[in-house]
Each structure stands twice: as C-alpha cells, then as structure tokens.
Automatic annotation (TrEMBL):
UniProt keyword terms in alphabetical order: Methyltransferase, Transferase
Record flagged with keyword Iron: no
Molecular functions per Gene Ontology: methyltransferase activity
Residues annotated as signal peptide: none
Family matches, as InterPro entries: METTL16/RlmF, SAM-dependent_MTases_sf
Domain of life: Eukaryota
A single GO BP: rRNA base methylation
Protein's name in the database: Methyltransferase 10 domain-containing protein
GO cellular component, one term: nucleus
Keyword Transferase: yes
PANTHER family: RNA N6-ADENOSINE-METHYLTRANSFERASE METTL16, SAM-DEPENDENT METHYLTRANSFERASE
Amino acid sequence: LNFKDPEAVRALTCTLLREDFGLSIDIPLERLIPTVPLRLNYIHWVEDLIGHQDSDKSTLRRGIDIGTGASCIYPLLGTTLNGWYFLATEVDDMCFNYAKKNVEQNNLSDLIKVVKVPQKTLLMDALKEESEIIYDFCMCNPPFFANQLEA
C-alpha cells in the first residue's frame, strides 16, 4: 500500500472503519485522511486518562473534539466503542458538512453533536448552548493541515 497515495489511504481507512467498527464514512480527498490505528490509540489513551475501565458503565462520559475534521473519526470511534457523547467543533465548511453527514449516516446524531464555529472562535463561544453540561475531556489533533500534501 502506498501511504503517500490519498486514494489508497482513504480506501484503507474506510474499509477498516466499516469492517472493524461497523462505521460507514465518506472522506473528501481534498482534506486530511486519518489513519485508524493512530486515532484509535488516542481514544484508548483518553480511556486511560478518565479511568474508563474502572468507571461505572452507566455513567455517560462527555467529550469535546476541537477541529473534528471531515471524517469526525474521534467522536465516531469514542461513541461506537464506549457510548460517549461528543460535541464536535469544526471551522471548515467542507469538513463540517462531511462530519455531519458521517454522523447522520451512522445513526449517531443522538450522541454526537457537530457544530460549525467561526474561525478564531474561543472554545467557550462554542459551548454557549451547552452551558449546563459538564465535560470529562477535550481533545484535538494538531498539527492542522488543509490536505494530505501538507501533512
């Protein structure tokens, strides 16, 4: 597999998510294409940080994904694996539209809220409608690249 070929990486990512997690997603070639093992490792690290294995399974964990990207991969994985609720923020119009579509086509809109935020918005501005909710963790995935060629 040529990992420098965006079409090959997209095919691998979509296949792994479908076969291993039952997730169906669309990713534009013009945006960053995530690799599943690295994103899954981040989810497992968050599990360790919040004591997921030791916690009461009936306790709903809530997270914020800053800059969720077109795939919305962290919320999709966190919700599928652990039943977590996510607020996923995105500034890019194309990424926002793909993220919403990916959440909807996997029937996870009740656990993942994708919010379009203006460029240079502070996190607290995105949380105005969520002021009563207490979040357990916040995550993001720097560095930020417009596409695979910049990565």
